[in-house]
Please model this.
Amino acid sequence: MTDSCRIQSLAEKAFFRFNRGGGTVSGPSIHLARELARCWGNIDYGIKELSRDDLAGVSEMQAFAWDLETNNRAETTFIVPHGRDTRQGVKKLTDLRDIYENNANAGARRLREMILGILPPWFVDDAKDLCTKTLTDGGGVPLPKRIAGAVERYAELGVDAKRLAAKVGRPSGEWSAHDIAQLQVIYRSIQNGEVQIDDEFPVDEENHITGADLKTQASTGKKIDASRDDTKKAAKEDEDAAPSVPEFDPEQPGAWLLDAQEALKSAKTGDDLQAVWKALQPGIKAMGDDSRVEKLAETKDKRKEQLSQEAA
Model:
C-alpha cells in the first residue's frame, strides 16, 4: 500500500470532489478503494444489476465487498433512476449504453463505500495521508513548474489565473504545494464530471461583461450594470415565489421524503402545488412500492384543501 500510494498517477486519482446542498463533499475515490482492496488481499467485491424496469425507468442494483479471510461483509441494494441531472432538469435516459454507464457510475460510488467499510480505518487513513503527501511532493517536480503547469491546464478549460487566485485565496506566486494538490483534485473531478467549472470557479458577475451584455446595451442604450441589476431582481423574485424542490438521493430516501413534504407544504398557490408535485415524480417513481410515498400524496391533498379554503 505504501509503494502504491507513492505513485503519482494513483495519487492524482485517489480523491473525488463534488458539490451538494451548497457545500463540497470529498473523500477517497473508487480508484483508491480498489487499489487498497488489492493490497489488503483476499477480498471479493463487485456490483450487480439485479433487475431493470424500462417502463418505470429504474434499475435495482447491488454493491458488495467481502473479506474472505475475516468473513467481514458489507452489502447494499439500491435503486438507480434512468436519468441524468442537467441544468435544465432531469434528462431521461433511453439509450442502452447511457443506462449502462449511469448504472456503473452509481454502482461505483456504492462499491467504494462497501470496500472502505470492511477495511480497517487506520489502513485507509494511512493511504489517504500518503496520497496527499505524494500530491504535495509533486513527484520531484519543482513547485514553480507545477504552478505553471496548473495554470496552463486550467487555461485549456477556460479558467484564467484570476479565477484560480480567487479560489485559492492568493495570487499564483504565493501558492503552496498543498494548494497545487487541491487544484489537482478539482481538475480531476472536473474531468470526471463530478463538479462543474462554474461551481468551483464562479465568474465575477459584477465585473464580467459578456457578448450578450454588449448587444443588449447597443440595442437598448441601457447601461449593463442597470440591466444586470434588473435581471438579478427578477431572478430573486422568481426564486422567492417558487418553492424549492429537493433532488432525489437514492442513498437518503428518508431525508428526501421529509424535504418533499416541506416543499408541498410551502406551495402558496394551486399552480405551485402542481408544479412541485410534477417535479417530485422522478423521485416518487424511484421509490417504487415504498409505502412512505403515500404520505406525500396525503400531504399534497391536505395542502390542496387548505389552499382551496384560503381562496374561498
